[in-house]
Design brief:
A seven-stranded antiparallel beta sheet has the order 1-2-3-4-5-6-7, with helices on one face. The chain starts with 6 loop residues before the first helix and ends with a helix. The chain has helices spanning 7-19, 118-133, and strands at residues 24-34, 38-47, 52-62, 65-76, 82-87, 101-104, 110-112. The chain is globular. The protein is 22% helix and 43% strand.
């Protein structure tokens, strides 16, 4: 979703993407703020396999265009072990896709990654869960 009217529209779209994902069994809204042209959200999803996805975005909207300023999608097992975390925290300048990167299975295992959104994250997680449960 790149064209949005305001922050409330974007937040409604995020929730609709979550609601349409069959692997999500629970949504907890930890924090949510919206002004006309900017906002933030922090949600926790409980997934079918018992894992959790903690998500955060700070965004702004200018001329109908959505810009994600800061994000983190932190996926962990029910025992709180890291599966993956996609984020744009500026702490790995050596990565070619800086500041965007992914932590895979551990904090020290960092790889280049292009910017992602909730649709892409939920697609990847859904594929993984389906392959594990079949």
């Amino acid at each position: 979703m790149k064209n949005v009217r305001n922050a409330d529209d974007y937040l409604a779209w995020i929730k609709s993407v979550i609601a349409l994902c069959p692997e999500v069994v629970n949504l907890t809204i930890i924090r949510e703020e919206s002004q006309t042209d900017k906002g933030l959200w922090r949600y926790r999803l409980t997934l079918k396999d018992g894992s959790f996805l903690e998500m955060f975005e700070f965004f702004q909207i200018a001329s109908g265009q959505l810009e994600i300023i800061k994000y983190s999608f932190h996926w962990q097992t029910e025992n709180r072990e890291l599966i993956k975390r996609w984020d744009n925290a500026p702490h790995h300048p050596e990565i070619p896709t800086y500041p965007h990167h992914v932590h895979d299975s551990s904090e020290d295992s960092v790889f280049p990654y292009l910017p992602v959104d909730i649709e892409e994250i939920l697609r990847q997680i859904s594929e993984h869960i389906k392959s594990q449960l079949s």
